[in-house]
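Protein details
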Amino acid sequence: MVFGIGDGQIDLDFDKPAYQPGDTITGKARLKLGSPRKARCLRLEFFCEKTTYRTYFYQGNSGSADAVYERTIERRKDLAPERTYKNGEEFKFELLVPANAVPPDWLDNIMGKFRPIRRWYIEVTLDLPAAFDISRKAQINLTR
């Protein structure tokens, strides 16, 4: 193993495959470590990544497009404090999906293909001192 890469992983399990605004996401994070590791904390982040596409037109027929990415953290909390973590430990969590997480239908009709794309994620990170952190990021499916 080079510099601690591949020294462990985190598995995430959720109670349902999809959620609606106002629902509570219930899940658990399970550590899979090769050996006990001292860490600053086990941190959970619930965030939205918004992608907006822009198109620029120049003189003549030439043009270009690019994407703008914006990350908005809705909730950040520590699941466990600084201590030594062991293989197989499980940590339960609950999060509330914000009421404005999914834009209304009328906004899609107005903006069409130019509307921003929102993707929601949960990321759990084991914050290791002087080593690469161990983390897992999972997309959360939201419906109307």
Observations:
- The mean pLDDT is 86.
- Residues 105-111 form the longest helix (7 residues).
- The chain has one domain: 8-137.
- Helices lie at 105-111.
